[in-house]
Amino acid sequence: MAIGSSAMALINPYRADLIAQVGESTATPYFIYRLRDAMLADPTGRRILRLRPRITSKTLSMSYLRSLPENTVGRTYVGWLDREGVSPDTRSETRYIDDEECAYVMQRYRECHDFYHSITGLPIVREGEVALKAFEWANTLLPMPGLSMFAAATMKPQERQRFWDIYLPWALRNGSRSKEVINVFWEEQLERDVEELRGELGIEQPPDLRAIRKAAREEKKRMKEIKAKGI
Question: Is 113 annotated among the ligand-binding residues?
Fold first, then answer.
């Protein structure tokens, strides 16, 4: 299952069900226990494991988050959801991890994924997803995010170059040095200043990928126009 789902997910990295299968089948027997132990070693992580909160549109009020000031974690999160056109209700249920507590750890990791996106600002385009997976791998040591980096081979040359030059170094540096993000009780951080939380976690934002992609498209268009006029 791990090999088959990994191969198919490499071809289509937007298949959330395949990503989920890869994550669960490669996390056992060691890696998910290591992440569970990291939560048990942290006071907030232990509380999360005890309370087992879920992140969905039912547990979080989207209208309330939109009413928060611009600089807050909650407004940053819902703003990212709105901009990318995604919902917190799309995360698959854990199916292939037998240990109940470890199954919840995997579920929590999945449901927090969009918070990682929002706090870093990375969009859900292929470049952004692979960059965030690299960050998650360095931070959690789960195999699946590491395997996801092979998707860089399917990028366009310019995208792949940006990944190697900018986003992979950022991901490995920040993921390895920051606090373990699995231990963030995001539901209790919604009204905090997002820059303050980034500083506390030790996460610096990468260069704005959407702005870089837009500038690259505009430059390509400009060069085509110049070439056409020259002809």
Answer: yes
